[in-house]
Amino acid sequence: MLNRLGLKFDVARPDVDETPLAGERPLDQAERLAEAKAHAVGKRFRHAWVIGSDQVAELHGQALGQPGGFEQAAVQLAAASGRRVQFHTAVCLYRHSDRQTLRF
User: Fold this and answer.
1) 59: three-class secondary structure by DSSP
2) Which is catalytic among the residues 10, 15, 17, 54?
3) Rounded CA gap, 47 and 64, in Å?
4) CA-CA to 72 of 20 to 30 Å: which in 27, 43, 62, 101?
């Protein structure tokens, strides 16, 4: 999308632990991780606006984690077959130099 808008940007790996917190709702997990990713990268590029984002799939009130491989992906797809899966997407815009955070 940024390309289509004609904006220059770089991509940086946030190196954030994505382990869910005990009792954390999938929506809260997506929001927490989007902000953590933006802040992690923002500390390295202090004057840049950084976009952090995350998406968590929810099935029966539980987050579906990263499958990690073909077999687990097949298990998750079979569990979701014929059922409603909700995707929670969160975006955070952050600039470390002035501690500006916007959450979407």
Assistant:
1) strand
2) 54
3) 35
4) 27
Residue where the block lists tokens 């968590």: 56
Question: Tens digit of pLDDT for each residue in 48-85?
Answer: 999 999 999 999 999 998 899 999 999 999 999 999 99
**54 is a catalytic site residue:** yes
Contact by Cβ (8 Å): 42, 13: no
Rounded to an integer, what distance in angstroms lies between the CA atom of residue 79 and that of residue 76? 5
User: Which segments of 7-60 does DSSP mark as H helices, in order?
Assistant: 26-44
pLDDT tens-digit series, residues 12-43: 999 999 999 999 999 999 999 999 999 999 99
- Spatial separation of the C-alpha atoms in residues 18 and 66, rounded to whole Å: 10
Q: What is the pTM of this model?
A: 0.88
